[in-house]
């Protein structure tokens, strides 16, 4: 199969590609990816917007090889040429969706800026440990060619193009559309969706070509969330609560699944990695729920709530009830475990999802958060009857903020995480993190029985950066990972 020329590889291609050295980027299957090389470096966008430091955001390269003399250190910084971009999530020019095409290489990191609406294309192929800017797509190209702004999630397509979901129009109103970039020149090609068919809000998306489907999610109107979170904006309809089902071939919207109040602010969409799967999960931030979406026997799509993290009644906080605020979820490459972070409560949870409709909690660790026992917040009533956790101290550093972005090693044995969500919300909910910088931590995973334990020897303290404390966000390995690779 050429890159994206069909959904199924002919049998002779499968035999050849399992061991061939001339294949395209990524791995033949999710289970093959689990046998891939151990991660040695990781890329993280580092954000200065909304801090007291007037410096450009930058892409940090961190050494995570325990055998290295620079283990747990930032070994390279690539500053952007502009201020206040708000670098956020990144993707690739090519991934496992192009595995069958030996002409493709995973050598460019696509780095959209959530607030400035720029898209930086970073060369990570020439020198993976010292990336350089390859091209900059200016906001005007998104505005004029697509009528879109605030780019968020980037995925490479089997066709060789790159697709980026957007959250707004150029005026800051909510608008969920998709920008296509040429995979070679990185010029803006145009919209993926048909004219007039953008949805009210945008955020994340995931596609499953074998079932001719894409599912997208919703955060909120950029101008409502740009300076922080106002609960009144939820009631006023400035935040989303729906999943959108799209026909992958025709680019037409087929369905909208309204998840209701319990599904308010559905963020990360994660299909199971098995390309034959017709189900996945979405983490819904505001009420601390996870919904399972699935294809019904009739051929349409539906969703059901399968996990709920109850809010805690508190005093000494902005509101009388504190949600967990599920902000990132991911699924292990063997589709056995689901992980998510409760950014406000401060815990990371691991669920066995072997029974897809009945996830079973098998691991939980607190790493900071807003209810630590020596903090200003007192928990008055907790439906889960958990004691307020002690502050988390790693290598002598008290962890500010709460666990947020997650990334799992290919083999599923190490879970990495950072504490910054989005600079305006960081400033509002964790002002100490603005002053001290965020951190990167790592947990060891029991992949047999389930279970999480903190690696007490691992800490990257972004409070010690040369230009001052910075907010480090999403994590990407050069060889791909379980939140960026899609298999055809």
From TrEMBL:
Keyword Acetylation: yes
GO molecular function, one term: methanethiol oxidase activity
Record's keyword terms, sorted: Acetylation, Cytoplasm, Membrane, Nucleus, Oxidoreductase, Protein transport, Selenium, Transport
Keyword Oxidoreductase annotated: yes
Residues in the signal sequence: none
GO BP of this protein: protein transport
InterPro entries: Se-bd, WD40/YVTN_repeat-like_dom_sf
Catalysed transformations (reactions): methanethiol + O2 + H2O = hydrogen sulfide + formaldehyde + H2O2 + H(+)
Enzyme class: oxidoreductase
Pfam families: SBP56
Membrane topology qualifier: Peripheral membrane protein
One annotated Gene Ontology cellular component of this protein: cytosol
Top-rank lineage group of the source organism: Eukaryota
EC code: 1.8.3.4
Pathway: Organosulfur degradation
Alphabetical list of SUPFAM superfamilies matching this protein: 3-carboxy-cis,cis-mucoante lactonizing enzyme
Family, per entry: Belongs to the selenium-binding protein family.
Reported function: Catalyzes the oxidation of methanethiol, an organosulfur compound known to be produced in substantial amounts by gut bacteria. Selenium-binding protein which may be involved in the sensing of reactive xenobiotics in the cytoplasm. May be involved in intra-Golgi protein transport.
Protein name: Methanethiol oxidase
């Amino acid at each position: 199969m050429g890159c994206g020329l069909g959904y199924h590889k002919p049998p002779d291609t499968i035999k050849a590609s399992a061991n061939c050295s001339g294949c395209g980027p990524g791995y033949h299957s999710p289970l093959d990816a689990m046998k891939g090389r151990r991660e040695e470096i990781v890329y993280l966008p580092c954000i200065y917007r909304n801090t007291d430091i007037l410096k450009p955001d930058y892409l940090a390269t961190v050494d995570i090889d325990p055998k290295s003399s620079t283990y747990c250190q930032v070994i390279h910084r690539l500053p952007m040429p502009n201020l206040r971009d708000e670098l956020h999530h990144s993707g690739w020019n090519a991934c496992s969706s192009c595995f069958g095409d030996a002409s493709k290489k995973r050598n460019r990191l696509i780095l959209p800026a959530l607030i400035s609406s720029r898209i930086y294309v970073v060369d990570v192929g020439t020198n993976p440990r010292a990336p350089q800017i390859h091209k900059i797509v200016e906001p005007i190209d998104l505005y004029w060619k697509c009528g879109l702004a605030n780019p968020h999630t980037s995925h490479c397509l089997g066709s060789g193009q790159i697709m980026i979901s957007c959250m707004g129009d150029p005026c800051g109103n909510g608008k969920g559309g998709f920008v296509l970039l040429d995979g070679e020149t990185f010029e803006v090609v145009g919209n993926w969706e048909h004219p007039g068919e953008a949805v009210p809000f945008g955020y994340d998306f995931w596609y499953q070509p074998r079932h001719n489907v894409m599912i997208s999610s919703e955060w909120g109107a950029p101008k409502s969330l740009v300076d922080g979170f106002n609960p009144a904006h939820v009631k006023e309809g400035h935040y989303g609560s729906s999943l959108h089902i799209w026909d992958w071939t025709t680019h037409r919207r087929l369905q909208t699944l309204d998840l209701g109040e319990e599904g308010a602010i559905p963020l990360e969409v994660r299909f199971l990695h098995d390309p034959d799967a017709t189900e996945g999960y979405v983490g819904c931030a505001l009420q601390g729920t996870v919904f399972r979406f699935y294809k019904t026997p009739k051929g349409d799509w539906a969703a059901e709530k399968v996990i709920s993290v109850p809010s805690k009644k508190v005093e000494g906080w902005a509101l009388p009830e504190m949600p967990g605020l599920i902000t990132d979820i991911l699924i292990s490459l063997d589709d056995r475990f689901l992980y998510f972070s409760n950014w406000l409560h401060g815990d990371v949870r691991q669920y066995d999802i072997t029974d897809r409709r009945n996830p079973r909690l098998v691991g939980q660790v607190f790493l900071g958060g807003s209810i630590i026992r020596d903090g200003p917040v007192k928990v008055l009533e907790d439906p889960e009857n958990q004691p307020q956790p002690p502050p988390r101290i790693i290598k002598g550093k008290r962890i500010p903020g709460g666990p947020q972005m997650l990334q799992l090693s290919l083999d599923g044995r190490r879970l990495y995480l950072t504490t910054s969500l989005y600079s305006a919300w960081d400033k509002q909910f964790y002002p100490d993190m603005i002053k001290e910088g965020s951190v990167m931590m790592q947990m060891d995973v029991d992949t047999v029985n389930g279970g999480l334990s903190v690696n007490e020897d691992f800490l990257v303290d972004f409070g010690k950066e040369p230009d001052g404390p910075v907010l480090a966000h999403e994590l990407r390995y050069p060889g791909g990972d379980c939140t960026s690779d899609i298999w055809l």
